[in-house]
Amino acid sequence: MKYYGRISSIGLSFVIQSFYVIYFYHFLGKQPELVLWCAYPALLGVFYWMGRQYDKATYYSERDPLTNLYNRRFISHVFDKIQAIASRSNSQIFVLLIDCDNFKQINDQYNHHMGDTVLRQISRMLVMSTRKSDLVARWGGDEFLIVGHYKDDEGLQVLIQRILESCGNIQIAKGIRVSVSVGSAVSTSHLQDDLTYLIKIADENMYGSKSRIEKTEKLPPK
User: Can you give the residue ranges of the GGDEF domain (predicted)?
Assistant: First the structure.
């Protein structure tokens, strides 16, 4: 949780107290009353509480309540800032779209509580598999999104493979197999691609990859 609200509130309380001190010294020509000094800790406490409520509201407005990942609203809001940073550093942006392959089957065969457990476990693996600078979000339902700065294709493929392996190793309960499909998209060098377009490309690549895997699994053994 960030501290913007608390820092701002404490700063505001300091400004108000300073105003009263300056008012008594310079305009009234006397010492501030003792009650003002005694009231300052209470004022500080009230402003700190107000700042904390603001920070909590901001935090939960940016997070998915089930997985505690960033939510769709937050990613959509900050994507332009990510593009601006990438533009200044002359780099590109990658987007990964991750989908749980058998999520509907898990929900139908077991229950929604088990489905929620699977989503939380996938979320944990995605955070463990990525860098601190990458943004991991729950995009909706059983879909997740990762946004980060692109270095090269080799590094991106390593990340994708790490995600596939870590999610494939999730142990929920006996008989429950968890696997995910991943689609990727990389912005052009001119950073003209918006988030909607990159997600569309990643989605197409994800379902293309899923179709190839399904065809391979259906092939008869040699």
Answer: 91-218
Do the beta carbons of residue 109 and residue 172 sit within 8 Å? no
Range of the domain at 116: 72-218
pTM of this prediction? 0.76
- Does 24 lie in the same domain as 95? no
Which residues of the chain are modeled with pLDDT < 50? 215-220, 222
- Both 31 and 116 in a single domain? no
153 is catalytic: no
pLDDT in tens, 160-189: 999 999 999 888 777 778 899 999 999 986
Write the DSSP symbol of residue 27. Answer: I
Nearest CA-CA partner of 90 in 22, 209, 190, 219: 190
Residue 59 falls in which region: left (phi positive, over 0), alpha (psi -120 to 50) or beta: alpha
| Rounded Cα gap, residues 4 and 132, in angstroms | 20
Q: What is the pLDDT of residue 220?
A: 47
My answer on whether 49 and 141 are in the same domain is: no
